[in-house]
Specification:
Layout: E1 10-15, H1 26-32, E2 37-40, H2 46-49, E3 57-60, E4 63-64, E5 67-68, H3 72-84, E6 88-93, H4 103-112, E7 116-120, H5 125-132, E8 146-148, H6 160-164, E9 170-173, E10 178-181
Parallel strand pairs: 1-6, 1-7, 2-3, 2-6, 8-9
Antiparallel strand pairs: 4-5, 9-10
Helix pairs in contact: 3-4
């Protein structure tokens, strides 16, 4: 495997895709293989973790409803601290790092601390779900709606009940739940 690129600390948020190791981007796999430290969440499978450089530090920060290994603020602090140690950190997130995730908060914390940050998009699980299910029909082929947000805080003007019976696929995610409706 490749050696780390440099000693200047930086963080790359990498989208791991919807769970199939063959769906991570080439760039994501290459950078994962160069990272000193891999900080990963609950939705990243072992096949993808195996792409990490041998000897790379692995830090699990997964969250499930009501149980967080680390609060989000501490995950942000961990990323900043590792980068300040001069490490190249791969922040590996399921799906895409900015869809249904808290990648934006991590980017803000890193930039505020003066840490170089890069984003490598991934195939969001929301799109991967359409390919695996029967979410298509002739009337609304390839259409879906995404509505990320926190439970109880949505001020969306979308009429979700009407959308649910429209026949078109839509997905809504919150930090408390995630469900699909086809």
């Amino acid at each position: 495997m490749a050696e780390p690129l440099s000693r200047a600390g930086r963080v790359t948020l990498i989208g791991a895709g919807p769970g199939d190791a063959e769906l991570i981007t080439l760039k994501g796999a290459r950078l994962l293989g160069q990272a000193d430290t891999v900080v990963y969440d609950n939705l990243v499978g072992q096949d993808i973790l195996n792409m990490a450089r041998p000897g790379a530090e692995r830090v699990f920060v997964g969250k499930t409803a009501g149980h967080h290994i680390l609060p989000q603020e501490e995950i942000c602090r961990l990323l900043v601290d590792k980068a300040r140690e001069g490490k190249f950190v791969a922040r590996l997130k399921g799906g895409d790092p900015l869809v249904f995730g808290r990648g934006g908060e991590e980017i803000e914390a890193l930039l505020a601390a003066g840490v170089a940050v890069e984003i490598v998009p991934g195939v969001t699980a929301a799109l991967g779900a359409q390919a695996r299910g029967k979410a298509w029909d002739w009337a609304c082929r390839w259409s879906s709606a995404f509505a990320p947000g926190k439970a109880g805080r949505s001020r969306s003007p979308v009429g979700w009940r009407a959308e649910a019976v429209s026949g078109c696929p839509w997905l809504r995610g919150t930090f408390d739940d995630f469900f699909t409706c086809f």
